[in-house]
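Quick one: structure tokens for this chain, please?
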Amino acid sequence: MLHRDRRALRPLLWARCLLLAALVSVLAGFAVHASELEGFPRTVVDGLGKEIELLAPPQRIFSTALAVDNVLLALVEPERVVGVTRFAQDPEQSYVVDKLRDHMVILDSLNAELVVATNPDIVLAASWNNPD
């Protein structure tokens, strides 16, 4: 949903910018080709403070938020993305409509069973996603 009064959204937009900046720094390492393992294994810290060791660049990535869809598909090949949100299909909200592929699961609402069924190497969730 697009909002007309951007002033009211300013704190939310700043929070999203900070989230995207953090996401870009983590995903920058994912943009390498699988044969280029420079920088791996790599340890990253998730939003809950848990350390996660990535032995190689993730090849099956699932996104659970439109902001993540946009950044992710700008950084990695669409073939490595196994799931995105339904908002990624909306040209009025998404910058990556042209990068969607038939193999991608389109997530209408966060559903753990559907995400796990895609056998992802990593799931990228936003702070506003329900952690359960």
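The first helix runs from residue 6 to 27.
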